[in-house]
């Protein structure tokens, strides 16, 4: 599954490698990878692959799940489609409460004590998805864990998820996508070491320029 989804993401440039011309994140970190998993929604084949695979992850890893909750905004559509496949209710969690009406942060019907799986598109440092999980826990839901399309596997993200006692299962990850990217000719085989160096320590830019400074 990891390699199939990796091929899908690369084919539509939802995950796009550019080690020679790094992208710049909002934090200022230079990155050889750009992720936009929203593109999976506009390609019918890839969308089918991704949503059916996410449904499979929920079935296999969280068989007791009662409700799916998408992260706002990227996880909402995926939660809706997977909920349709699994015949399960879904809702979503806002990044903050509304400043009008009922001032909801959690949208959709959710009973206290219900077993929830969070649906996310990608995980890097883990901050946003942990915030969603904590909001659901504070409301009284039992969060079984998270399913996501892609994870970087960054040390900071893995440590934060562990500290928050949040289980995440992803369709594919940084290492799998890098491997397939080299096999398919998107990047050079020798770039993999540079990409892994970035993944292991994003703040260290020594990987740029072939690892020479």
Which tags fit this structure?
globular, six-stranded mixed sheet, two-stranded antiparallel ribbon, 213 residues, alpha/beta
Helix and strand pattern: HEEEEHEHEEEHEHEHH
* Straight-line distance between termini: 37 Å
Helicity level: 25-40%
Q: Give the number of DSSP strands.
A: 10
Instruction: Give unreliable regions as ranges.
Output: none
Anisotropy-based shape: globular
Largest sheet descriptor: 6 strands, mixed
Trace the largest sheet across and list its strands: 7-6-5-8-9-10
Structural class: alpha/beta
Number of helices: 7
Average pLDDT reading = 92
Please tell me how large the radius of gyration is.
18 Å
Beta-strand content: 15-25%
Folded structure, characterized:
With 213 residues, the chain is an alpha/beta fold. 38% of the residues lie in helices and 22% in strands. The chain is built from seven helices and ten strands. The chain has helices at residues 2-11, 44-61, 76-86, 127-139, 155-163, 174-183, 191-200; strands spanning 15-17, 23-24, 30-31, 33-35, 67-71, 90-93, 106-107, 115-123, 142-151, 168-173. The strands form three sheets. A six-stranded mixed beta sheet has the order 7-6-5-8-9-10, with helices on both faces. A two-stranded antiparallel sheet has the order 1-4. It has a two-stranded antiparallel ribbon with strand order 2-3. α4 (127-139) links the parallel β8 and β9 (142-151). It starts with a helix and ends in a 13-residue tail after the last helix.
Summary, kept brief:
This protein has 7 helices and 10 strands. The protein is α/β, with parallel strands linked by helices and 213 residues long. The longest helix is centred in the first third of the chain and has 18 residues.
